Amino acid sequence: MDSKMKEYSDALEFIRRQYKGEQPEIGIILGTGLGALADQIVQERVIPYNFIPHFPISTVESHFGRLIFGKLGNTSVVAMQGRMHYYEGYSMEEITFPIRILKLLGIHTLFLSGAAGGVNLDYKLGDLVAVYDHINLQTDNPLRGSNINELGPRFPDMSKPYDMKLVNRSLELAKEKGYNMHKGVYVAVTGPNLETPAEYRFMKIIGGDLVGMSTVPEVLVARHMGLCVCAISVITDECDPDNLRSFNLDEVIEIAKQAEPKLTDIISTLIKEL
Ligand code: HPA
After folding, report:
1. pLDDT tens sequence across 200-209
2. Mutate to test the pocket of ligand 1, among 88, 112, 211 (most ligand atoms within 8 A of CB)
């Protein structure tokens, strides 16, 4: 067995001993300030990441680190409360390890949430954005190295990275509910620094609408394995190169928190409808 597959099977075996309920259909990654969707899940089992063999542990204070199994409506879900970022020092392989585990646990669809900067100046603080495409400016790739053929192809297709039915449905739901929502192209960077004015200008010129330090590695690994993907971000800072304010983490977390009920509402409705 490939040594990576051995690590996956160690983690799976441990999780299956801890959680003997229904196979989850949906995986959810709860990002910065967006962990409260966990409260809507009727929880059946909670497993801290540090108990699971080979699982990386998030070092960011604003993130919990636990896997939550339970029900959202009638749907069995598994949520990652807290995600790992490349800027924390993990390898791309480490930060996407949990996505492989979720797939092997049986999910067919992955929902991701997170905070992002608004490069598109029509976006306002607290607006939601359904990601419909991305531009990867990260300098490393989780699929680099020998391919695990059991999981997916060497050269995974990226012609349809995000599920357009879910993008369109989330926009409809937002309209019905009176939430400001857009669809946009996510530019992925590694961070941890924020961007310079010239970098934000560049991102706009190349066709980006929002920028963030997460999401894309997970999406690459999820699409490699054929998972259906839906990513929704909250705009936590406005990236106007000609009028750029200094970055304030407390403000970003506060804005993400304020938007949390809207995002929770959209994602939980989408899941209940699936
Ligand atoms: N840039 C990169 N990542 C981010 C930003 C940003 O402006 N805002 C939130 N995450």
Report:
1. 999 999 999 9
2. 211
Distance (Å, rounded) from C-alpha 167 to C-alpha 270?
Answer: 10
**Closest to 56 measured CA to CA, from 15, 11, 115:** 11
Sketch out the chain's domains with CATH numbers. 3-273 (3.40.50.1580)
Which residue minimizes the CA distance to atom 3 of ligand 1?
212
| Distance of alpha carbon 156 from alpha carbon 68, whole angstroms | 29
- Ligand 1 atom 5: residue of nearest CA: 117
Query: What is the DSSP-derived secondary structure letter of residue 35?
Result: T
Q: Which atom of ligand 1 is nearest to the CA of 195?
A: 1
Q: Residue 82: which region, alpha, beta or left (left: phi > 0; alpha: psi -120 to 50)?
A: left
Ligand 1 midpoint to CA 166 (Å)? 24
pTM of the model: 0.94
| Residue showing tokens 């992002």 | 116
User: Counting beta carbons within 10 angstroms of the beta carbon of residue 67, is it exposed (0 to 12), middle (13 to 18) or buried (19 or more)?
Assistant: buried
- Kindly give the distance from the C-alpha atom of residue 123 to the centroid of ligand 1, in angstroms, as a whole number: 13
CA distance 129 to 181: 5
Identify the residue whose C-alpha is closest to ligand 1 atom 7: 117
Write down the pLDDT at residue 65: 86
* Span 230-251, pLDDT tens digits: 999 999 999 999 999 998 888 8
User: What is the CA(88)–ligand 1 centre distance, in A?
Assistant: 15
